[in-house]
Specification:
The longest helix has 20 residues, at 286-305. The chain has a 9-stranded mixed β-sheet with strand order 14-13-12-11-7-10-9-8-15. It is built from 10 helices and 15 strands. The chain is of the alpha/beta class. It binds nicotinamide-adenine-dinucleotide (NAD). Residues 7-13, 32-35, 38, 53-54, 69-72, 74, 78, 92-94, 119, 121, 154, 169 line the site of nicotinamide-adenine-dinucleotide (NAD).
């Protein structure tokens, strides 16, 4: 039995706990949250002990792996303390608010040669694999990303010093997909819309991206809406247009292929396989997510500084 500890007992932790509990070879060994009521609520659902913080969870011992499901501002110590106990980590995106924290975690994972994974579950969509097959031998020349949505119902989200803003917090999924389907990005320039409320995250922004391989890209984000309106990535290559959302691939605006809906299970299963030392296909280990994180941070910096940012700029 693989014994997993979870740090953070909010929305995404509840989802991972449900998926992990359904695996016959995994037990949830403990759940920690700085809000003890949240830890208790999720732990009691899964018949596991609750802890007031990650340090108590780690001190209780007996873990094989740790899931870090905290908001952007709380990354750093949970990961580094779990790694110091030699435990593999699964980390929810975004990796942190800055680059330094994520880089120090990445080097510690590498130094200890531990398995890791990040919650970029879009990479596990079966329609993403189909998109890659359709694009084989046809380089993408144009990418159009969207994240047009509502404000998520979590208290910390509108505060940029806690969430990092919509690009880092949400559109990072689309950026990760763009890196996979198009390639690395060398320059970004974000133009945020005038913000009605000072000190809150940008409610809308438009970005231009230049890919190292020569493709051009656009990314539009907004959290002005009351519903998830449009979230995904469109790409154009020679003679083909693909439109990917989290549930569907549309080929040339006509042929629609539904995803099998298993990505959120696969992302956990492959990590657990890696922890168990089995053959595993972890598509986004921490080091790979760090590249996407760098890109998202470059966009966030461009939005704040109102200027183009190249990816080798000091972030
Ligand atoms: N991959 C995905 O599809 C997906 C989906 C939802 C959320 N997320 C990501 O997961 C993260 C959490 O989102 P959420 O919706 O679960 O937020 P949430 O606010 O519902 O839950 C976060 C929990 O972490 C706790 N917490 C904060 N600091 C802590 C600390 N130092 N130690 C322990 N617990 C701490 C909070 O009390 C809270 O209960 C966000 O970064 C979000 O982007 C990813």
């Amino acid at each position: 039995m693989t014994r997993v500890g979870i740090v953070g007992a909010g929305n995404v932790a509840a989802r991972h706990a449900d998926v992990l509990s359904a695996f016959p070879d995994v037990a949830i060994a403990g759940i920690a949250d700085t809000d003890p009521r949240r830890a208790e609520a999720l732990a009691s659902k899964h018949g596991s002990p609750a802890f007031g913080g990650h340090a108590d969870l780690l001190s209780a011992g007996g873990l094989d792996a740790v899931y870090v499901c905290v908001p952007p501002f709380a990354h750093g110590n949970p990961e580094l303390d779990a790694l110091s106990c030699n435990l593999p980590i699964f980390v929810e995106k975004p990796l942190s608010l800055d680059l330094k924290t994520a880089e120090s975690i990445a080097s510690e994972i590498e130094r200890r040669s531990l398995p890791s994974a990040v919650g970029h579950h879009w990479r596990y969509l079966d329609i993403v694999q189909q998109a890659r097959d359709l694009l084989s031998g046809r380089p993408v020349r144009l990418a159009l990303g969207h994240w047009l949505d509502k404000v998520p119902p979590v208290a910390w989200w509108l505060n940029p010093t806690m969430s990092g803003g919509q690009i880092l917090e949400q559109a990072v999924h689309v950026l990760d997909l763009a890196r996979l389907l198009v390639g690395e990005v060398s320059m970004v320039h974000v133009v945020p819309a005038e913000n009605p409320v000072d000190g809150e995250v940008d409610r809308a922004s438009a970005a231009v991206l230049r890919f190292s391989g020569g493709a051009a890209g656009l990314l539009a984000t907004s959290c002005l809406l009351t519903h998830k309106h449009r979230v995904g990535l469109e790409v154009c290559a020679d003679g083909i247009a693909l439109e990917l959302s989290e549930t569907r691939l549309l080929v040339d605006g006509e042929r629609s292929i539904e995803d099998d809906g298993q990505a959120k299970v696969r992302v956990d299963r492959e990590f657990i396989n890696a922890v168990q030392g089995k053959q595993a296909e972890v598509r986004v280990p921490y080091g790979e997510a760090l590249r996407t994180h760098r890109l998202a941070l470059a966009l966030a910096k461009s939005a704040v500084e109102r200027r183009p940012v190249t990816l080798d700029d000091d972030q």
